[in-house]
Amino acid sequence: MKDCLFCKIIGGEIPSNKVYEDDMVYAFYDIEPQAPEHILIIPKKHFESIMDVTGKDFEYVDKMMQAAQKLAKEKGFEKDGFRLVFNTGRDGGQTVAHLHMHLLGGRSLQWPPG
Ligand code: AMP
Ligand code: ZN
């Protein structure tokens, strides 16, 4: 989608530090890390949020989860754990309107969130 930051990252128009890519998913390091490892996993198709995904397109969400599991294994988070987050809409704290999942790991994380 034109004028979408994450679509531009997928297209290579804006540089990113890529950690994983397949035909449906792209993953890269967050520019403002909130944990020692902070990765964003995004679908290659533009959806504003999880609320805009329907029907067969849920395959993108499936692939995002598979990428998260693979990256968590690679990063060695299986034993101590990690967190997956979809901030959604204003109250959810979403700042970029292209569906994305945060993978946070490498330290003990607090709960509940602020
Ligand atoms: P959210 O607040 O859930 O919408 O998450 C958006 C995330 O995108 C934030 O954690 C930002 O730090 C991150 N972000 C914004 N711009 C970039 C960028 N150019 N490269 C990498 N991460 C970014
Ligand atoms: Zn987009």
Characteristic key phrases:
3 helices, binds zinc ion, binds adenosine monophosphate, 5 strands, single chain, HIT family, subunit A, 5-stranded antiparallel beta sheet, 114 residues, alpha+beta
Could you describe the 3D structure shown?
This protein is an alpha+beta fold. It has one domain: HIT family, subunit A, CATH 3.30.428.10. It has a five-stranded antiparallel sheet, with helices on one face. A hairpin with a 3-residue loop joins strand 1 and strand 2. The model has no long low-confidence stretch (mean pLDDT 97). The structure holds adenosine monophosphate and zinc ion. Adenosine monophosphate binds next to loops.
Radius of gyration: 14 Å
Point out poorly predicted stretches: none
The CATH topology assignment is HIT family, subunit A
CATH class: Alpha Beta
The secondary-structure element order is HEEEHEHE
CATH architecture level-2 label: 2-Layer Sandwich
